[in-house]
Structure formats: structure tokens, C-alpha cells
């Protein structure tokens, strides 16, 4: 009977079970293990954020409540507005170009035997700090072609098609028959056949003479022709040489162009030989001789990469140099997971390599490309080192970004309230991008 009663009795309350986490660990134990990390997170992240929000509501001294006055400065201060404009340029172009180059590198290096070595070289700038990269590109963009690699290449290409003059500083000396005329030099009086013309010049440093320049020689008269000499009428040392006549130590202006002009029209022209002598035909009789302004054109000195107009694109170029390798590695990892059957099927169906890339590879890599682009956007919003180091003081205002303006307002101008407002504003800009990235990662992680 007892056993029957026991069998028919309702079951008693179940013994309490210890609450466990998803991994099977007790939640109290898990919380204890997480506590040090949470303390560090609060001390290094949450507290600074909260303090910045509170500090942004006070004036520079920190004693008077300023409300939203510091936030109004974000849209009224010229420096901050320039920084906002430049940040928009950075966010649009830097991640896009870096991701595009990373995609191209990742796809192309799959088809070459030395692809691993190429990836290593492209990724290598990631091992360099922003400070070192800034110093490197400050030298790369130097205005002097003898120092800056960018201008050395640019000037080399330019001079291959438009050679610079060898006489940019040349001008008539004392008692010269030449007078200035709109950058050119013209003889005061008409010339005559059979009478040699002396065209003395000064102002060219010895090391700037062309390699084919020789010792100047006095022109000899020739029947029916106009002859003359154009040379450097200057000899080191006092009392040496004769003014207005070629001396043994003086050199001719090799390659100098001479034109004979009548009634505003060029009737004849010639180039000076290595010794400075030249010969014009009889049609030059009665004309004035002109040394065109092209003879004295200043040498091309390249592009002012760090000037107000190009400083931001130049710095973005240095950023792309550093981060294209990062994009390439992530995209290459995603490309390794793309089913090869789909690519081969597209080729079998007659698609060209460009069509396979555009209509198959890129759509399959879209999630990876989105993650890389968003990650670089977050990184770009915080860029500071490159702008601070590469941009010279004369154009730093034109290259200004929010992170740099935060530093300037907080430390250079002594306005910590406005600096805190900029920091909070940057946080608000980054949060939506981070949430987008997190949502995409969670969506991809679902089965």
C-alpha cells in the first residue's frame, strides 16, 4: 500500500539546478573571469567617453556650464568646417581606392607564381608606423626634385618632352647692344650682312652651362650673311679679359636660339654652335636680332604636392600606400573561399575574364568588400598622424581633419571644451558605421 501510494503521489519539486552559461560554465564563475576585462573596459573606454561628454558641456576653464555652445562651434568655426569637409573627402576616397586596389591585387596575384612575394611587398607598409610613413612621404613629396622622388619622376617625364633652358638667369651685361622686350632680348639697331654681331650676356653659373659649350670665338664676316657670337662675357678676376669681346676663358652659349625680326615677323633663325657663333642668311639683312624668351625659361620644378590644392590628395595617397595591403590580404582570404566551380562554369558559358570578374567574382566577394570598406572608413575618421607630419605648416590648415583639429583645439588653442565636443562628434560618426559592421558580421554568422 505504501508503495502504491508512493507510486500514485504527484512528483515533488525538482532539485534546483545551478545556472550555467552557454558554454556550460557557471555564470558567477564566468563573471569573475570577465571582471578584470570589464574593469579595464570601464576605465579605458567608458570613463573617458563619459568624461568627454560632460566636459564638452563646459567652457574652456571647466567651471562654467556652456550647454551646447561648444557643439555650435562645430558648424561655425572655420577650422572645424574645413576639417569636416576634408573628412568627407577622406571617407569617400581613401577606403574606396584602398579597397579597389586590394581587390585588383588579390585577383591578379592568384594567377602568378610569385604572387606570395608580391603580397608580402604590398603588405609590408603595414609594419611601418604612421609616424615613419609620414616622414617617408614628407620626403617623397619634397618640392626639390633632387630630394623628392615624386617630383624627380615628374620632372624627368616633363623634361623628356619639353627640355628646360640652360640659361634661365642670363641677361645682357654692361654696354650690351641688347635691350629687354617682354622676356626676350632684342638688338637696339638693325644688323647688316658682312658685319659680325657681338651679343655679350652674363648671369649663367659655370656649372649650368650645357655639356657641349666650348670656348667662345669671335665670328668671322661672311659675304651675304649675318654672323655673330653670343657668349658669357664674364671672366673671374679683376683686370682680366676685354669687355665686349670673347676672351680665352669665356664660353659660348651653345644652343641659344637667335631670330631675325622684320616688321614683327621672324624672317630667319639659327642656333648658336658650341663656341657661341651663329650664321643667318641674307634675308636677315636690316633686321633686328632677338633672343626669344624661351631661351631664358626657368627650369620646370615639378608639382607643389604639399601646396594648398594638392595636400589632401597627396596625404590620401600615402594612406592608400599603407592600407592597400591590409585590404588585399582580407580580400584574398575571402577569394580563397569562392567556389571555383562557379568561375569555371562562367568561363565555359563563354564569359570573358572581365565578365567573370565583374559579374561573378565581385558579387561573391561583396560581403568581404563591405567589411573591408567599413573598417577602413572607421580608421579614416581617426586619421591624425599622417596629416600632422606630412602637411607643412603653410598648408596644414588646408589639410586639416577632425582628429587633428581636436588636438589643436585641446592643446594648441587651450579650448578643451570644444576639443571634447569634437571627440563626441567623432564618436557619433563612428557608432553607425560600427553598428552596420556588427550587424553584417552577425548576419553572415547565422546558418
Tell me what you see in this structure.
By secondary structure, the chain is an alpha+beta fold. The protein is built from 14 helices and nine strands. The strands form two sheets. A five-stranded antiparallel sheet has the order 2-3-9-6-7, with no helix packed on it. A hairpin with a 2-residue loop joins β2 (178-181) and β3. The two termini are 55 Å apart.
Q: Topology of this protein?
A:
Elements: H1 2-8, H2 27-55, H3 69-76, H4 78-108, H5 115-123, H6 130-140, H7 149-161, E1 171-172, E2 178-181, E3 184-187, E4 197-202, E5 226-232, E6 257-262, E7 265-271, E8 277-280, E9 288-291, H8 311-336, H9 340-348, H10 353-364, H11 366-381, H12 385-390, H13 402-412, H14 416-445
Parallel strand pairs: 4-5
Antiparallel strand pairs: 1-4, 2-3, 3-9, 5-8, 6-7, 6-9
Total helices: the number is 14
Give the biggest sheet: 5 strands, antiparallel
- Strands in their spatial order, largest beta sheet: 2-3-9-6-7
Highest-level CATH class of the largest domain: Mainly Alpha
State the domain count.
Answer: 2
Give the radius of gyration: 37 Å
Task: Tell me the series of helices and strands, N- to C-terminal.
Answer: HHHHHHHEEEEEEEEEHHHHHHH
Write down the CATH topology of the largest domain: MetI-like fold
Structural category: alpha+beta
In percent, how much strand structure appears in the residues? 5-15%
The residue fraction in helices comes out at 40-55%
The mean pLDDT is 86
Give unreliable regions as ranges. Answer: 1-6
Architecture of the largest domain, CATH level 2? Orthogonal Bundle
Give the termini separation.
Answer: 55 Å
* Overall spatial form: elongated
Give the strand tally: 9
* Corresponding CATH superfamily of the largest domain: MetI-like
Amino acid at each position: 500500500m505504501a508503495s502504491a501510494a508512493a507510486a500514485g503521489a504527484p512528483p515533488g519539486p525538482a532539485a534546483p539546478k545551478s545556472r550555467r552559461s552557454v558554454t556550460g560554465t557557471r555564470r558567477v564563475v564566468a563573471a569573475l573571469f570577465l571582471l578584470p576585462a570589464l574593469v579595464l573596459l570601464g576605465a579605458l573606454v567608458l570613463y573617458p567617453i563619459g568624461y568627454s561628454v560632460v566636459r564638452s558641456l563646459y567652457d574652456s576653464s571647466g567651471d562654467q556650464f556652456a550647454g551646447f555652445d561648444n557643439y555650435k562651434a562645430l558648424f561655425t568655426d572655420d577650422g572645424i568646417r574645413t576639417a569636416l569637409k576634408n573628412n568627407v573627402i577622406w571617407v569617400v576616397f581613401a577606403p574606396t581606392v584602398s579597397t579597389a586596389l586590394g581587390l585588383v591585387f588579390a585577383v591578379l596575384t592568384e594567377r602568378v607564381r610569385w604572387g606570395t612575394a608580391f603580397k608580402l611587398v604590398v603588405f609590408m607598409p603595414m609594419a611601418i608606423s604612421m609616424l615613419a610613413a609620414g616622414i617617408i612621404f614628407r620626403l617623397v613629396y619634397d618640392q626639390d626634385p633632387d630630394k623628392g622622388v615624386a617630383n624627380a619622376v615628374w620632372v624627368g617625364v616633363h623634361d623628356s618632352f619639353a627640355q628646360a633652358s640652360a640659361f634661365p638667369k642670363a641677361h645682357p651685361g654692361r654696354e650690351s647692344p641688347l635691350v629687354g622686350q617682354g622676356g626676350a632680348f632684342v638688338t637696339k639697331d638693325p644688323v647688316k650682312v658682312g658685319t659680325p654681331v657681338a651679343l655679350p650676356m652674363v648671369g649663367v653659373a659655370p656649372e649650368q652651362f650645357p655639356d657641349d659649350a666650348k670656348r667662345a670665338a669671335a665670328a668671322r664676316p661672311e659675304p651675304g650673311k649675318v654672323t655673330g657670337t653670343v657668349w658669357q662675357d664674364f671672366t673671374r678676376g679683376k683686370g682680366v679679359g676685354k669687355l665686349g669681346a670673347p676672351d680665352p676663358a669665356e664660353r659660348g652659349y651653345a644652343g641659344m636660339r637667335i631670330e631675325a625680326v622684320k616688321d614683327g615677323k621672324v624672317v630667319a633663325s639659327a642656333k648658336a654652335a658650341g663656341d657661341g657663333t651663329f650664321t643667318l642668311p641674307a634675308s636677315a639683312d636690316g633686321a633686328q636680332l632677338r633672343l626669344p624668351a624661351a631661351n631664358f625659361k626657368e627650369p620646370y620644378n615639378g608639382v607643389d604636392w604639399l601646396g594648398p590644392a594638392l595636400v589632401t590628395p597627396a596625404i590620401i595617397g600615402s594612406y592608400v600606400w599603407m592600407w592597400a595591403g591590409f585590404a588585399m590580404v582580407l580580400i584574398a582570404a575571402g577569394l580563397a573561399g569562392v567556389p571555383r566551380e562557379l568561375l569555371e562554369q562562367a568561363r565555359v558559358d563563354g564569359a570573358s575574364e572581365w565578365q567573370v570578374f565583374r559579374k561573378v567574382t565581385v558579387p561573391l566577394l561583396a560581403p568581404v568588400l563591405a567589411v573591408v570598406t567599413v573598417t577602413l572608413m572607421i580608421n579614416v575618421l581617426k586619421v591624425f598622424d599622417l596629416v600632422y607630419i606630412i602637411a607643412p605648416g603653410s598648408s596644414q590648415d588646408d589639410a586639416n581633419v577632425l582628429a587633428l583639429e581636436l588636438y589643436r583645439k585641446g592643446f594648441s588653442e587651450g579650448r578643451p571644451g570644444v576639443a571634447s565636443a569634437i571627440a563626441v562628434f567623432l564618436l557619433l560618426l563612428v557608432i553607425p558605421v560600427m553598428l552596420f559592421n556588427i550587424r553584417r558580421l552577425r548576419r553572415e554568422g547565422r546558418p
